[in-house]
Amino acid sequence: MFVESATLNTLIVALDIQKARQTTAAYNVANYSRGDLATIELEFDTLLSALLAADNNVIIRQALAAGVESYASVKHQEAGSVSMEELIMSSERAESRYKATAEILDRHLALIHLSVKGN
Amino acid sequence: MPIQDIKAIAAFGMQYERARVEAAGRNIATASMPLPVSATQSQVYVVKTEGLSMTFETLLLGNRGAPQVVTEFADSKYVYSPNDSHADANGMVRRPDIDTTQQMLDIVSATRAYEANMRVYNSASAMGQKALEIGSGR
Hints:
Oligomer: heterodimer
Shape of chain A: elongated
Strand content of chain B: 15-25%
Shape of chain B: elongated
Helix content of chain A: over 70%
Order of helices and strands of chain A: HEHHEH
Number of helices of chain B: 3
Distance between the termini of chain A: 12 Å
Radius of gyration of chain A: 17 Å
Helix content of chain B: 40-55%
Radius of gyration of chain B: 22 Å
Distance between the termini of chain B: 27 Å
Largest sheet of chain A: 2 strands, antiparallel
């Protein structure tokens, strides 16, 4: 069950990351006419390894999740370096990854549910 | 960072693009309107919003001013149009200095941007729907 908790935490952070990506994409699409775009700088591997090392420590997980949000809000870039099509594609990528991660989380929960029932 | 925030940002983007279309439409409608010969300036419609002058961080906090179409003063042009009923003795008429081609391009780009915001809104809705489905099979 300890391992399952860590996996669940990882999946939830992965969902947070896709949500942060989608928020950045929404901001960029809404501000495209103005020309001030934000970029998201995610060090997913670093987050993931820290998360796995932290096992199921809720406080550390929350700190990492908060870190994901701050990553999404720092950097601005000049317009013109990216097209509207690319912004839409990044939004759709975030959506499909979010759905895929949610699907994995759902299956994982089903497995935990089965194992609890089995016990 | 709730999904509602993503949808609110996309909705703000749609409001802004709709206001751009409205402003461009009004500018085209008044482009050929004659002005008094002495008027060196005319009114043009522009979109003003607090939201666009805000940073990513403040926009996320929900402080988005609703976009509004307001008038601003701009230069007028003095053109030769002797058949115009408002022409002066030299056949010259004063009109707002509005480039209708540019206004048409603005409408096209605003329409495309509106559609893009709508796609983002729909993506966020799909994400929210998927999040609600987690664990619903049991």
